[in-house]
Amino acid sequence: AQSVTQLGSHVSVSEGALVLLRCNYSSSVPPYLFWYVQYPNQGLQLLLKYTSAATLVKGINGFEAEFKKSETSFHLTKPSAHMSDAAEYFCAVSASNSGYALNFGKGTSLLVTP
Amino acid sequence: DVKVTQSSRYLVKRTGEKVFLECVQDMDHENMFWYRQDPGLGLRLIYFSYDVKMKEKGDIPEGYSVSREKKERFSLILESASTNQTSMYLCASDPARGGTEAFFGQGTRLTVV
Fold it and tell me: Which of B 74-113 lie inside 8 A of A, CB atoms?
């Protein structure tokens, strides 16, 4: 089975500052890793995904994440936060030994202050 | 665009009622999933289905059942609703290949009173 741990249930950054949301995974087989974003009262939208190709993955809205096998991490970053980035962010993992069902972290709520 | 549609955005049901949550996807995806989302707990997998009439238990199947009679439709059933099933329920589908994106519906916020 696989799992993810998101460090920090709430993160606050100033507009224009670096965004860093942390995710560590556990998997006994090569994982697929995802970041999803959820805006209030909406479903989840994919930001980016790692599928064993390039370790640095670029996503929508200026976000990117780097897969580091040695650290079992897949942290999400954005160089400059925008007010519209305020949302809930979920890291997720899937693998072949679980039918590719997504296992989600508990989420990180990002607050962006002016 | 892939569309996953959940039949209701908000539902209020009484304790003991049988509740049906419906989900339809329009992209011929093999896999469909039901999650519940609670503050501080993230999304937890209730059931998933990888084919018509097939189902697999997720992490928290107790108190729930599912039905998948047609490929595009996946129903979540609360046999006897209880207040601890008050939650946001999210349906998702994907084409059952590793590393592919799961598409989510807008969610159904269920309140059991």
Answer: 90, 92, 94, 96-102, 104-107
pLDDT digits (tens, 9 = 90+) for A10-42: 999 999 999 999 999 998 888 899 999 999 888
Q: Are B37 and B54 in contact (CB under 8 A)?
A: no
Cross-chain residue pair B107–A42, CB shorter than 8 Å:
yes
B14/A contact by beta carbon, under 8 A = no
Residue of A nearest to B47 (CA): A101
Token look-up 């556990």 returns: A26
Question: Looking at this protein, which amino acid is placed at residue B10?
Answer: Y
Give ∠ CA B60-B61-B63 in degrees, rounded to 5.
115
